[in-house]
Amino acid sequence: MDEASTPDILKPISQIYRKTQMYLNERVKPLGLTSGQAPFILLTCEQGKVAQHCFCAYLDMDKSTVAKTLFKLEQEGYVSRQPNDRDNRSTDVSPTKKARELYPALKKIGEEWALAVTDGMTQVERAIFFELLQKVAKNIGAYFQTSLS
């Protein structure tokens, strides 16, 4: 594909990101959360105990952002952090009862958004769309691992 026929993807990606953050902030605010905290609660509830450093890879975030977010979630009673039994340099993060109670609502918010953004698509189109998004996310991760390191 030559440059003239390459679509400008920056605007729709920016719109998707901004509108998703706006939607999430609006929907999770009554729950006492921000859009940045919700993925941490979802991940801990789905995985159980998670090593803190794994959040960096799972959520594609730097260590300081992960540490700050988890500290705040711990202070608010959504997660507990404890030293790893096998490696005292590592910290394990687990969901609390408070997080597990919130999990179904967060899951529903995500599902409703997925349906809203794919409105008008067939089931096949939805499946292809989500598969392509995963490929794009994988390519972006690979780009930053190889090109910028």
Labels describing this entry:
three-stranded antiparallel sheet; Arc Repressor Mutant, subunit A; mainly alpha; 6 helices; single chain; globular
Report on this model:
A hairpin with a 7-residue loop joins β2 and β3. The chain is mainly alpha-helical and 149 residues long. Strands 1-3-2 form a 3-stranded antiparallel β-sheet. The protein has 6 helices and 3 strands; from the N terminus they run ααβααββαα. Helices cover 62% and strands 8% of the residues. The protein has a domain of 100 residues: Arc Repressor Mutant, subunit A (Orthogonal Bundle). α2 crosses α5.
Number of strands: 3
- Strand proportion, as a percent range, falls in 5-15%
User: What helical percentage do the residues reach?
Assistant: 55-70%
CATH topology of the domain at 3-102: Arc Repressor Mutant, subunit A
Say which CATH homologous superfamily of the domain at 3-102 is assigned: Winged helix-like DNA-binding domain superfamily/Winged helix DNA-binding domain
- How large is the radius of gyration? 18 Å
Number of helices: 6
The assigned CATH architecture of the domain at 3-102 is Orthogonal Bundle
